[in-house]
Amino acid sequence: MTRAFIFPGQGSQAVGMGKALSEAFPAARQVFEEVDAALGQNLSRLMFEGPSDELTLTANAQPALMAASLAVLRTLEAERGLDLARDAAFVAGHSLGEYSALAAAGTFSISDTARLLRIRGEAMQRAVAPGIGAMAALIGPDLATARDIAGEAAEGLVCDVANDNGGGQVVLSGHREAVERAMALAQSRGVRRAVLLNVSAPFHCALMAPAAEAMRRALAEVPMHAPAVPVFANVTAGPLTEPDAIRNALINQVTGTVRWSESVAAMAEAGVDRFFELGAGKVLTGLVKRIAPSATASAVGTPDDVAAYA
Question: What's the rounded Cα separation, in Å, for the pair 302 and 235?
Fold first, then answer.
């Protein structure tokens, strides 16, 4: 059995995430304490108790989701004998989850990852004034159709493919006017559904260029190590092991497409037949089941999940 460990992105956060794990396992509690110290903030209390609107803020949600994921990983190591270098063929994460995957594989320390994600979240929020941008999920089209719709809708503005999530879900991002045009075009092209997303900024599009520059500066200052296992990069949909290539992929990821469907399909093609989603929620587990139906996928986020891990 060949395994990959995958890490969720923004949208998976929920008040209470990680609380039971922290109460049950010292290894999990240590991760939350390390993240709190790195940020100079009691982020774990916000995760455990809310309020939800504060946890959902991009600058909080990104390091919080990483903390929840790494708490699961450290617990599996301590309680179930997980050795990532021995047990995993690949790691991967969706958007900010790529940072969680890199921390899991030892490229970044947990503290540095928390600080990078705080910078990333704040920079992404600052990049576009409220009301200027939007994101929309198109349900049904393939990637080529979604790209055609985005290109036609742009009309000189930004309308990019932000996420190719698989299972017939493609997310567009850019200027609100262009995204709304794309939604109307999609319905006229027979796309099953077009849904405006409740997000605070238009992520993974050209409007995020200022945030990409902020990450270029931040990543230049942080020590990086070769990962213990190859990390599938969002923007290449392929495995990376060299720190310089990983750094460039993280910079490009801010404005680039999250090629999740291609990444999962490539891991399955390379022999992965079991995926474990570590952290909050089960979003990626559902996507894997649609992208690679011959593989199994399980979410690990609670003490019961840890006990069931095998």
Answer: 30
Summarised one tens digit per residue, pLDDT across range 40-83 is 999 999 999 999 999 999 999 999 999 999 999 999 999 999 99
Q: What are phi and psi of 99, to 5 degrees?
A: -65, -40
Length of the chain equals 310
Closest CA to 132 of 61, 60, 199, 186: 199
Q: For residues 235 and 249, is the Cβ–Cβ distance under 8 A?
A: yes
Query: In terms of Cα–Cα distance, which of 307, 290, 291, 283 is closest to 299?
Result: 283
* Catalytic choice (44, 100, 204, 261): 204
pTM, entire model? 0.97
**Out of 22, 44, 69, 95, which one is annotated catalytic?**
95
Q: Let me know if 94 is a catalytic residue.
A: no
Please, what is the average pLDDT of the chain? 97
Q: Which residue, among 171, 153, 173, 155, has the nearest Cα to 163 in the 3D structure?
A: 171
Active site (annotated) includes residue 204 = yes
CA distances from 112 to 36, 39, 67, 83, 170 (A): 12, 10, 12, 22, 31
**Dihedral angle over CA of 9, 240, 34, 63, nearest 10:** -20
